[in-house]
Amino acid sequence: MTIADILKGDRGGKTMLLVLLIVTIAVPVLNQTLPAGHPWHIPTYMVTLLGKYLTYALLAVAVDLVWGYLGILSLGHGAFFALGGYAMGMYLMRQIGDRGVYGNAELPDFMVFLNWTELPWFWYGFDMFWFAMLMVMLVPGLLAFIFGWLAFRSRVTGVYLSIMTQALTYALLLAFFRNEMGFGGNNGLTDFKDILGFSLQADATRIGLFVASAVALAAGYIACRYIVNSKLGRITVAIRDAESRTRFVGYRVEHYKVWIFTFSAVLAGIAGALYVPQVGIINPGEFSPINSIELVIWVAIGGRATLYGAILGAILVNYGKTVFTGLMPDSWLFMLGALFVLVTLYLPQGIAGLFRHFKRKQPTDPADGNPAPVTEGGAA
Amino acid sequence: MSVLENVRTTMRRDQTWSIVTPKQKLELNVTTGPILYLEDVNVSFDGFKAINNLNLAIDAGELRCIIGPNGAGKTTMMDIITGKTQPDSGRAYFGSDIDLLRLSEPEIATAGIGRKFQKPTVFETHTVAENLELAMHGNKQVWYSLTAKLSGEQQDLIDETLHTIGLVEHYGKTSGALSHGQKQWLEIGMLLVQKPHLLLVDEPVAGMTHQEMDRTAELLTSLAGKHSVVVVEHDMDFVRSIARRVTVLHQGSVLAEGSMDDVQNNPKVVEVYLGE
Ligand SMILES: Nc1ncnc2c1ncn2[C@@H]1O[C@H](COP(=O)(O)OP(=O)(O)OP(=O)(O)O)[C@@H](O)[C@H]1O
Ligand SMILES: [Mg+2]
Q1: Closest by Cβ to A249, choosing from B109, B125, B145
Q2: What domains can you pick out in chain B, each with its CATH number?
Q3: Of B60, B98, B56, nearest to B74 (Cα)?
Q4: Nearest ligand (C-alpha, residue B253)
Q5: A19 CB contacts (<8 Å, ≥6 apart)?
Q6: Hey, which of B44, B76, B234 would you mutate to test ligand 1's pocket, going by the most ligand atoms within 8 Å of its Cβ?
Q7: Structure pTM?
Q8: Which of B134, B151, B201 is the mutation pick for testing A, counting most A CBs within 10 A?
Q9: What is the ipTM metric for this complex?
Q10: CATH (residue range A3-361)
Q11: How far apart are the CA of A85 and the centre of ligand 1, in A?
């Protein structure tokens, strides 16, 4: 099974990955080889901004897998993203060593400030990169597994499930705000210095993180496409469209749901881990329920159940956000809301649906195994 | 309060927890008795008794027709057998060993009970062939299905089934685009590839033409013998064309049972049907 096999018939995905490849090569080259005044020069802050968008795109792909293909409207994926981010943040805190304000090599600054004398047990091991990376995947994955196991086994679906996911992220928001939790309270984790010994301020490190984000996005996309194309993917869609019918042909629906949900949470965690070193901070605000709702809107705008639509939506909306919060800081949420309503009304299959609409005008290719998604009702 | 109640039910001394009781073996045993056995089953919905002391036994290899006026409880009976509805009391056995009331829908399906629904339900966004692939008997575990490929044998079964249900030309068509009758056929096909021991078929010929009905009759009679088949149907001509033994349900219990002629001449049955 080669990558070409996996992407067979996935025109949107191939185009998307090709563009991603070009950008991943061009951006560092334009940043490094051209002088600062040159019109084609890409400043380093822009490289990092693009890297941030790519981590959002990976998060959106994770959401599309559970929402678009499994029909679970998760309004809590921001929590998995943030947990991955915190795991990375803890590693970055340990990398500071004795260069903090208090010069304490044993304890991060905020712990010294709180008069703590020793490192809490759950910080053990985070000075090792491999351990932190394991936690980046394990913590969101385990939480999703337990949450999913309880919720799906009790057959909670639709709006109730969405509300529970909101409650999950809200509960974590409140918990992480508390200083006693040991994650820096409302300031979160920040003032990072190095990653793997490389300075986070250095151009090369920033380019490295940007490239790593692009690679993670491509790998995540291909993994999701592989799942979606497999029989597992067809069962997933069957569950989305006719859950109880799927049970009657012998599938244990809750097992399927829990594994897809967990995998998606792991992807979200990885996205969060790549996000944190690029923005330089992780705080409880990342758990805020509105974040999780926003990212569902990215997917809706890009087009559900296409995967590449999620990438498109995440990047376009966040670019729009960057531009418009610069111009009119207070209007962004209203604009996002309006955009969401307009897309739901006039483009129910999102931007990707628009492409497909034009494509359908041409003679259709029976080998293209992408059935049109059912946008209506699948979530509820 | 409800937490306390939950704890109480969980801690009841007269029963063991479901997690410590050994998992049932899902092996069908029909050497000593019927393949399906319902005893004193009761179901009520908000006080309305949909199933009322229902007793029913289906023999291995039998083709049984179940008739009864609307609301008699025919579909509800299938819901109980397939694990969709939990009865208030009673027993339901598949073979002599498998207690259906302790199993979930997928476990019952895996044990060998297949069902065709009254309202045809197929996987609408999947193609006809994919619907058959999904319903195919075999390993249905998550990790297995990630890498599962159709074996030659399975592909042959799909081709053969497509022939049987007359949808060969439509194999690549999205099943949501099929006509009502074609969906009925597809669902019958899904039942066939599932290779169940017992087939529960709820109103198979609704929306079918006369020729299609004849073919369905032929198919169902040919299945009996190797499989056991329970057919619920309103169309009396159809029932007469396949029936050997007929059970009449009325208000959730058995009103009469016997050959088609017996049943039709039964005064109680006549009254129920004419009284409508
Ligand atoms: N989930 C439910 N909640 C409440 N009432 C129900 C439910 N399911 C069935 N009923 C009621 O139970 C009775 C039996 O219904 P059932 O569907 O089994 O009848 P049926 O014999 O299949 O009828 P038909 O020939 O119309 O399909 C009906 O009066 C129905 O309204
Ligand atoms: Mg019915």
Answers
A1: B109
A2: 27-274 (3.40.50.300)
A3: B56
A4: 1
A5: none
A6: B76
A7: 0.91
A8: B134
A9: 0.88
A10: 1.10.3470
A11: 52
